[in-house]
Amino acid sequence: MFYQPSQGHGLPHNPFNAIVSPRPIGWISTRGADGSDNLAPYSFFNAVAYVPPQVMFASTSAKEDRGDTKDSMANIRDTGVFCVNIVEYAMRDAMNTTSGPWDKDKDEFTLASLEKADCTTINCPRVAAAPASLECKVTQMIRLEGESNFAVFGEVTGVHMRDDCLVDGMFDVTKFNPLTRLGYRDYSVIREVFSLKRPGE
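Above: the chain sequence. Below: its structure as tokens.
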């Protein structure tokens, strides 16, 4: 099968995000200029550079009470900072709760019964029990083609790692099993890893 997105795919559901999978989930926490806190998952997320360490995520829809975007983007526009919390399998239900179209005044930490902790280098909350959290200062915000499509790039200014996830000086994902996003309503979990040496190593 071949299709051109501009002409439609003819399938019951859009296959695009099922093809580009699995994707890591950036559980983005922000604090508004008014002091209100927000937490929402984004599966268009990844690390993009080592030195300095940088990440990006994209927001692709809008809410009526935020105009052309969502709560996370609106808060980041005001403050210039955000925190990426890594989602473990054990937190899948809490993550899903925070994905709802809640009113901008609702605190998703409270809705999902998640404990907050303060970030160290930025004025922002983080998920206290997350396996890892990345404190970020915005470097670029880019409007992408299409309605309500934005990409945010941030430099990582602080890194939190849960002590039980460190084994022999390495961050071991099998200690918490990262949740990953597939297509449609599907998710997966990482339980096994293997290593490959690059040519010449």
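The chain is about 10% helix and 35% strand.
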